[in-house]
């Protein structure tokens, strides 16, 4: 065997070894999937998601569904084959682990962080809804109960649910118009809607659970369109007030409804 052939064989073996190592080595990614959805106007595990005291509430129709994703844990081994498979599937997504778990390195720390974010989201959703309606938090108390869900991404849907239960569209009608409406987005006390991530998976979860309309933070329109299920209507929102007006326009003949 000539020196040139020996060198070529050696180089080939090294490349194959590197490829095999890359294929078997765990990567700093998590694989995410469509998660659960919940109707914030209804009940979760036998308890109303939204309980309001200190003010009369309306009987509502239709559904307002918060959406979520699930992902492999922070200590799960994700390999190159998992990442490649996720890139080619519409119901999976490979995401940098730090994007899914930005705080903490173990399950307990992450669960505590997500629970804290959920509590803050509930507080800001209540403040945003009551502020928009000109109601006082001193007189009206809102309790939100949603088990096994963490993070801030349900803020918009919580605020819409509180608004619908207290005032509907302001003219005696429901915000949903009897539809199943899903959505995602953080919210601050002033009613500003923020981006959340994982939107393509959330639209699929919403479609699976019967939604035909999806409210998406405006800056994530392109992501939402990427894997949009057939028959799902996207409505971009930037504020709680804009979301209410868009839903009202959706069931008003001749009205202009925002779209991505």
Q: What is this structure's SSE topology?
A:
Elements: H1 3-24, E1 29-39, E2 43-44, E3 47-48, E4 50-53, E5 63-71, H2 80-88, E6 93-96, H3 97-100, H4 107-133, E7 141-144, H5 155-166, E8 180-183, E9 186-187, E10 193-194, H6 199-208, E11 213-217, H7 221-226, E12 233-237, H8 240-250
Parallel strand pairs: 5-8, 8-11, 11-12
Antiparallel strand pairs: 1-5, 1-6, 2-3, 4-7, 9-10
Describe this structure in words.
This protein has 260 residues and is of the alpha/beta class. Helices cover 39% and strands 21% of the residues. Strand 2 and strand 3 form a beta hairpin. 36% of the residues are buried. Residues 13-23 have low confidence and may be disordered.
Q: β content, as a range?
A: 15-25%
Number of helices: 8
Helix amount: 25-40%
Uncertain parts = 13-23
Q: Give the SSE string.
A: HEEEEEHEHHEHEEEHEHEH
Radius of gyration, in angstroms, nearest whole number: 23 Å
Query: Sheet with the most strands?
Result: 6 strands, mixed
Determine the structural class based on helices, strands and strand pairing: alpha/beta
The backbone outline, from C-alpha atoms, is globular
pLDDT averaged residue by residue: 87
| Count of beta strands | 12
The strand order across the widest sheet is 6-1-5-8-11-12
End-to-end Cα distance, whole Å, is 64 Å
């Amino acid at each position: 065997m000539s020196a040139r052939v020996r060198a070529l064989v050696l180089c080939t073996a090294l490349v194959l070894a590197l490829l095999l190592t890359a294929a078997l080595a765990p990567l700093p990614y998590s694989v995410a999937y469509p998660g659960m959805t919940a109707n914030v106007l209804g009940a979760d595990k036998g308890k109303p998601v939204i309980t309001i005291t200190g003010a009369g509430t309306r009987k509502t129709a239709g559904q307002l569904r918060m959406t979520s994703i699930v992902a492999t844990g922070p200590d799960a081994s994700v390999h190159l084959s998992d990442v490649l498979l996720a890139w080619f599937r519409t119901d999976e997504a490979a995401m940098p682990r730090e994007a899914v778990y930005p705080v903490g390195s173990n399950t307990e720390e992450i669960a505590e962080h997500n629970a804290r974010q959920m509590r803050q989201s509930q507080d800001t959703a209540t403040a945003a809804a009551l502020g928009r309606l000109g109601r006082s938090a001193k007189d009206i108390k809102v309790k939100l109960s949603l088990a096994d869900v963490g993070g801030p991404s349900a803020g918009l849907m919580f605020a819409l649910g509180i608004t619908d239960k207290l005032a509907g569209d302001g003219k005696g009608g429901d915000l949903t118009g009897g539809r199943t409406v899903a959505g995602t987005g953080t919210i601050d006390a002033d009613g500003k809607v923020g981006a959340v991530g994982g939107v393509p998976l959330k639209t699929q979860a919403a479609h699976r659970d019967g939604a035909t309309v999806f409210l998406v933070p405006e800056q994530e329109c392109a992501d939402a369109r990427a894997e949009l299920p057939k028959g799902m209507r996207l409505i971009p929102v930037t504020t709680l007030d804009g979301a209410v007006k868009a839903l009202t326009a959706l069931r008003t003949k001749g009205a202009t409804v925002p779209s991505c």
